[in-house]
Amino acid sequence: MKKGLIWCMATLLLMLAACSRENGGQEPPASEPVKDAPPIEKIIRSEQQAFSVRLPESYQLLAEEPGNDIVWSAHNENAMLRIQLFSDNAQSVQYLADNTPALLQGVNEEAQVEALSAPPSLPTQADVAAWRVHHAAGDVLALTFRCDDRRARALLFNRGDSEQIFLNAVASMRCGTAQE
């Protein structure tokens, strides 16, 4: 056993000496912090609707009003994601198709609501449709989609640097019985 320990120590010393020679005998440079490290995420369940969502630690899911939840962060108070769930039936599909552009029109009555022919990619959600309206405080993006056994609408307000986080949150949603 002593012989093995001595052998390991000798090997370690040789490796350290080799590293020192490669570095000109200088101390190794301090490691740089990782700048784009992925944020620590958590899965949060809505207290009032049948869905769960994955969010970075600095974001919260809050009940807004009956049938509406918001994703919000103190580091960007002007950005918000509003989530609503609906039954997955023909009436809901028609309601969302008719009501979502009208809802966006209320954000800026003078601007035209644009239906996006290429909505953002949400690989875990189906039947994605998207609309956008311009607003002085920032564009508002509306998404409708099938989330497991429900229909959902997500409104992204004043997204700024939170846009990708909001899109990732929508993509991570599990609805109804699938969230169990």
Task: Please explain how this structure is put together.
With 180 residues, the chain is an alpha+beta fold. The chain has three helices and ten strands; from the N terminus they run αβββββαββββαβ. The strands form two sheets. Strands 3-4-5-9-8-7-6 form a seven-stranded antiparallel β-sheet, with helices on both faces. A three-stranded antiparallel β-sheet has the order 1-2-10. A hairpin with a 6-residue loop joins strand 7 (126-133) and strand 8 (140-147). It is globular, with a radius of gyration of 25 Å. The relative contact order is 0.16.
Query: In this structure, how is the largest beta sheet organized?
Result: 7 strands, antiparallel
Kindly report how far apart the N and C termini lie.
Answer: 53 Å
What pattern of helices and strands is seen along the backbone? HEEEEEHEEEEHE
Rg, rounded, reads 25 Å
How many strands appear in the DSSP assignment? 10
Shape: globular
Tally of alpha and pi helices: 3
Could you list the spans in which at least 5 consecutive residues all have pLDDT below 50?
A: 1-23, 25-35
Structural class: alpha+beta
Helix proportion: 25-40%
Write down the overall mean pLDDT.
Answer: 80
User: Which range does the strand content fall in?
Assistant: 25-35%
Largest sheet, order of strands side by side?
3-4-5-9-8-7-6
